[in-house]
Amino acid sequence: MAVQQGRPNAVTAAEARAGTHVLGIFENPLNTRILRAHADGAKRFAELERKVGWSAPTTLRAAVSRLCDLGALRKLTVRASPYAVATALTRLGEEMLLVAAELEAWLGHCPQGPAALDGEVAKVVIKALGGGWNSTLMRALSSAPVGLVELSRLIPDVSYPALERRMGWMRSTGQIEPVETGERSTPYIATRWLRQAVAPICVAGRCERRHMGEVSPRATSVEVETAFLLAVPLAPLRGDATGCCMLGVQIESDDVATDGPVLAGVTVDLAGGELLFCEPARDAEPPTWAVGPSTAWLDAVIDGSIEGLRIGGADPQLALDLIAGIHCGLFTDR
């Protein structure tokens, strides 16, 4: 099985990344209110208007129609009147409420103070997050401070003004911060809060895999590496955790010359419970490993379930500790 090699000279941002279809729904606070209004059952339009609060009827109808087209809501005929229609959550809509809960938990730690998911602050924050994930800015900023000039080289298919604008959004919302070096060009690095955003991104990605497979892009090495590079430093570990371990995700390659799935992920080195380094995987034969498809890794990271992963090597307990640590760092220890 091939191991995709480390950080490339450039990362492509030409397509939407896994998870961004669902995240984008919550950029509009009205969508959040509509989905939550259906949490206790089907709603006719008049009921929905009362639960959602003031919104122009045409705007509300258009938003409901878009959510129906997406597959998050379905239309029902009301028995009492064959001409009356109600809308209800689909399985996709129900899982989108779980994404909403994770987004709001993350927004609760906003550096500027807790932000409600259906408020205007959240709209700006989620837009900045989606822009950083889609453009691969988060990949470039995930492991070391990077300045705008270097970013323009790493992400050549996004214009310099667009990168500058997205960096501005991420900085103003507390997702990245400058590192003072005394040099002319100021480098930036991901904040702890941005690292914690891997939690809602993973839940959104799993939602897409389960219910939007035909339109949702598959995870690539870019998303896999970014998620691990951001999340591993958050993992609480036992004090004697020592050794080297690869965390690998089997991803389907579009390269016809590749024989079967390729392996993307990170190599983690620990000593006495301290993280020495975490970098894109290069070693095809690491001393210890945890490997599995993206669906199994999403279950492991989100739920702590390891059934779909293959774990082995010199110190399987080290791999188990890392998996449990990532789950705790993202979903319980926050």
Question: How is this structure best summarized?
Answer:
Helix 8 crosses helix 9 and helix 13 crosses helix 14.
Commentary on this structure:
The chain has 334 residues and is of the alpha+beta class. It is built from 14 helices and 10 strands. It folds into 3 domains: 69 residues, Arc Repressor Mutant, subunit A (Orthogonal Bundle); 96 residues, Arc Repressor Mutant, subunit A; 112 residues, Nonspecific Lipid-transfer Protein, Chain A. The strands form 3 sheets. Strands 8-7-6-9-10 form a 5-stranded mixed sheet. It starts with 19 loop residues before the first helix and ends with a helix.
CATH top level of the largest domain? Alpha Beta
How big a fraction of the residues is strand? 15-25%
What overall form do the CA principal axes indicate? globular
Strand order of the largest sheet: 8-7-6-9-10
State the end-to-end CA separation.
Answer: 36 Å
| CATH homology superfamily name of the largest domain | SCP2 sterol-binding domain
Structural class: alpha+beta
Portion of residues in helices? 40-55%
Computed Rg:
21 Å
Keyword list:
single chain; five-stranded mixed β-sheet; Arc Repressor Mutant, subunit A; 334 residues; Nonspecific Lipid-transfer Protein, Chain A; alpha+beta; disordered N terminus
Per-chain topology:
Layout: H1 20-25, H2 29-37, E1 43-44, H3 45-52, H4 57-70, E2 73-77, E3 85-89, H5 91-107, H6 120-134, H7 137-140, H8 148-154, H9 160-172, E4 176-178, E5 188-190, H10 192-196, H11 198-211, H12 221-231, E6 243-251, E7 262-271, E8 274-280, E9 288-293, H13 294-303, E10 310-313, H14 316-332
Parallel strand pairs: 6-9
Antiparallel strand pairs: 1-3, 2-3, 4-5, 6-7, 7-8, 9-10
Helix pairs in contact: 5-11, 6-9, 8-9, 11-13, 13-14
